[in-house]
């Protein structure tokens, strides 16, 4: 009975979500050039030029908000491994010595993250880099078109499945053994769907997760960790997978449940957007995980 009620609730949510209007038209952007390979200054500069071109294009089309965001991204000293202003936007920004780091934390964001809201992802990456104190590099990976929190896509694994090839390719480029994936909200679904093909990562951390997009524990040899703040609304999301004739609704298992197989990390009393807030228990614990130390019990 409970499972049926949860399924009905998900179906109702889908029906409601499809009538929510789109948040504006797509911002025009040119196709980026293929940047040089390697973790080099030449690559960073080539990507910066693509960002500048996209910013001028946005300004020419009267997209002031996007143009301002891209001007900030192109400021001297900032380093991006890739950028694409089309289809909601893609970017990966580096914090710290990526080429020389023995450990790398890659942030995989969740819903409502795009170029216009990128600063939120960057703020979390900078807070983590400061907490690490140079012990590891950090990459903010906006490598897919994230779903909207009020859209139908957030109820399925479709956007996550689209992101899987890009995430696996990016991890291979960095070297899996030194990479810890830190997967927030719907980003945990991306990591869950990609896990089986990522190789032996250092860690996978799922936090503020509505599910993993799987039918059971992640199929990975990497240590899996999970966290949820006591005031995170995502705890109220039904953890089901409802298979319908035309799609599957729901995002699957609760990562902090014992059946998930993940090690639960204390996250304090924060809400859904508080995990990487400076001074938070989760920020301290995830920095310990990335560097190979034990988090607080």
From TrEMBL:
Domain of life where this protein originates: Bacteria
Q: Where is the DUF1023 domain?
A: 84-240
Q: Which InterPro entries does the annotation name?
A: AB_hydrolase_fold (IPR029058), DUF1023 (IPR010427)
List, alphabetically, the Pfam families matched. Answer: Abhydrolase_8
For this entry, the protein name equals DUF1023 domain-containing protein
Q: Give the species this sequence originates from.
A: [Actinomadura] parvosata subsp. kistnae
């Amino acid at each position: 009975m409970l499972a049926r009620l949860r399924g009905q609730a998900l179906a109702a949510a889908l029906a409601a979500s499809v009538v929510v209007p789109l948040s504006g038209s797509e911002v025009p952007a040119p196709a980026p050039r293929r940047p040089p390979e390697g973790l080099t200054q030449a690559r960073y500069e080539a990507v910066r030029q693509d960002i500048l071109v996209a910013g001028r294009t946005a300004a020419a089309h009267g997209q002031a908000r996007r143009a301002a965001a891209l001007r900030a991204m192109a400021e001297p000293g900032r380093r991006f491994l890739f950028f694409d202003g089309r289809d909601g936007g893609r970017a990966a920004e580096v914090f710290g010595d990526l080429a020389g780091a023995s450990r790398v934390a890659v942030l995989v964001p969740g819903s409502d993250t795009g170029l216009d809201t990128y600063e939120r992802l960057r703020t979390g990456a900078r807070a983590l880099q400061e907490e690490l104190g140079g012990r590891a590099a950090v990459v903010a990976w906006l490598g897919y078109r994230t779903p909207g929190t009020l859209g139908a896509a957030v109820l399925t694994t479709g956007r996550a499945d689209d992101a899987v090839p890009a995430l696996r390719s990016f991890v291979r480029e960095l070297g899996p053994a030194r990479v810890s994936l830190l997967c927030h909200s719907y980003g945990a679904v991306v990591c869950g769907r990609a896990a089986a093909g990522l190789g032996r990562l250092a860690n996978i951390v799922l936090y503020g997760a509505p599910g993993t997009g799987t039918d059971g524990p992640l199929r990975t040899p990497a240590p899996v960790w999970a966290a949820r703040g006591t005031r995170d609304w995502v705890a109220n999301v039904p953890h089901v997978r409802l298979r319908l004739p035309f799609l599957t609704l729901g995002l699957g298992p609760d990562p902090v449940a014992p059946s998930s197989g993940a090690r639960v990390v204390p996250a304090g009393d924060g809400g859904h957007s508080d995990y990487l807030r400076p001074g938070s228990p989760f920020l301290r614990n995830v920095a310990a995980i990335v560097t190979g130390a034990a988090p607080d019990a």
